[in-house]
Amino acid sequence: MVALTKKNKDLIIVVSGLPRSGTSLMMQILQAAGVPLLVDNVRQSDVNNPRGYFEYQAVKNLKNDNQWLKYAKGKAVKIISHLLYHLPAEFQYKVIFMNRNLDEIIASQNRMLKNVGKVSEIDDDTLKRHYAAHLFDIGRWLTHQKNMEVRQINFHHLFEKPQTELAILSDFLNIAFNTKQIQQVIQPELYRTKITGH
């Protein structure tokens, strides 16, 4: 584990974004960097996330129960973007927000559903408009939260220019990374739904 600075030890590192935006990959990166994670491994790895989901089940009920957040101090926890609104103001957060092409996100979600024998109940165009509106709203909201620092990390760039993105992440968290070690986590086979023309 990395020795978090005194300034960081009471911070909660939040990995967020839309579903299928690369949040699990970011949790893997932080783990490789030695950052402690708040996970419970209740949701096991599967064909959609062969390296695991890195989730903490209590997150899903954040709107009604946030008592568990005290255990997240000095750690990284994965919280999907629509739940960020429910984070209590009593804590300080550093939010790593995963940014990914919306067409890729939707294609990845459709692939995930197909793998479990389901189909989306919302057509792609409607879902894309919904996601775009949500990203605009949550982005505007985050800029007004005095207890939150936010850094966008581009999923595509993690694969195309990982050193640049990891340098941004290292600076944001004020943690020195072993870049070569971490880059081993960012494997091309993890980028399975790719749309050209970024």
UniProtKB/TrEMBL annotation:
Pfam families: Sulfotransfer_1. It comes from the Bacteria. SUPFAM superfamilies: P-loop containing nucleoside triphosphate hydrolases. Gene3D superfamilies: P-loop containing nucleotide triphosphate hydrolases. The keyword Nucleotide-binding does not apply. InterPro entries: P-loop_NTPase, Sulfotransferase_dom. Residues 13-187 form the Sulfotransferase domain. One of its GO terms (molecular function) is sulfotransferase activity. Keywords: Transferase. This is Sulfotransferase family protein. It comes from Caldithrix abyssi DSM 13497. The lineage of its organism: Bacteria, Pseudomonadati, Calditrichota, Calditrichia, Calditrichales.
